[in-house]
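Structure tokens please, single chain.
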Amino acid sequence: MECHHIVPLHEAGEGRTKLNDLALICANCHRMIHRRAPWPTPWELRASIEQKHAADRRAAEALARPRRAAEEQMPNQ
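Here you go.
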């Protein structure tokens, strides 16, 4: 786990960091957040990943549909 400042330090300025200013995230997600600007929040990154997985599932189901239809038309051997 890594600690991520929800509001970047260069935007927050000097001051004390509170627990509400931080998010604990895995190292991979932390690197994904810092990969592009403006940085997505941890919640925006999660939503993006969930959308990508949903799209991948839909694509896999669409590819499997013609195969299933062909298998149903074949007589049992």
